[in-house]
Amino acid sequence: MTKNLEISTLLDYYGMLLTDKQRETVEYYYNDDLSLGEIAENTGISRQGVRDSIKRSEAILFEAEEKLGLIKKSAVLKSGLAEIRRNIDIIDEKNMKIYRSNAVNESIKVILKELEKLDEII
Amino acid sequence: MTKNLEISTLLDYYGMLLTDKQRETVEYYYNDDLSLGEIAENTGISRQGVRDSIKRSEAILFEAEEKLGLIKKSAVLKSGLAEIRRNIDIIDEKNMKIYRSNAVNESIKVILKELEKLDEII
Question: What is the pTM of this model?
Answer without folding.
Answer: 0.86
